[in-house]
Amino acid sequence: MAADEFTHIARDAVGARGRFTVALAGGSTPRGIYSLLAEDARKGVTTLPWDRMHFFWGDERCVLPDHPDSNYRMASETLLSKVPVPPANVHRVRTELSAARAAAEYEAMLREFFLPEPGLFPRFDLIILGIGPDGHTASLFPKTAALSETLHLVAANWVDKLQAHRITLTLPVLNAASAVMFVVSGGSKAEVVRQVLAGQDAGCVYPAGRVQPASGRLLWLLDSAAASLLPPDMDPTVRTQ
Ligand code: 6PG
Prior knowledge:
Strand order of the largest sheet: 2-1-4-7-8-9
Radius of gyration: 17 Å
Number of helices: 6
Strand content: 15-25%
Bound molecules: 6-phosphogluconic acid
Helix content: 25-40%
Mean pLDDT: 95
Structural class: alpha/beta
Order of helices and strands: HEHEEHHEEEHEHEE
Largest sheet: 6 strands, parallel
């Protein structure tokens, strides 16, 4: 399901604008999606215009790119090393720099690539996001400074509970996307998914609840465990896989 959506959006974007821009999520849930995309490409099940596709990250841990915790490494191992994406189309966060410099450089690169009008934000064709049991998404964790960023595209966000900085796209960029796809697995997310999707998160306590693309599609792809607390008449854009 998520791989199908990815393929559909990628084909539409390249057909309409000659390129596809996607910000990948980290963590464990997307591994399966990336592996399936690579496997479908290997078997010829899907043919995608890989040379017209540009890969970015919605967030990154402040570790070297070959570190086991690196989101770049995870996407490279599962997908990017297995499909013919030109290296120049892979736009990783340079985490060998300090957190502040990595964020500043990533922002400069986004501005140079997307050339957003002054005061506007880059419009990704697709942003893939996950959600944590605490309602964080990308590296926008509850009660962290990056949540209130309204001007910058990227933040070096200090996350107290991790005692670490994380590099993350900010909410204005997430909400400028043409499509945002949450991919969620596991019963540990069921309660936060219920509160966010059933409108119980009135105060937008959860960062994930603040992802509301202004003029874009919002898709939630949930496994049955993550969807287990949702009312049966849930919005059709919320699909369980
Ligand atoms: C990260 C992710 C993070 C992730 C959620 C869910 O860098 O870890 O960007 O926001 O999407 O923590 O992770 P799982 O999919 O592994 O549950």
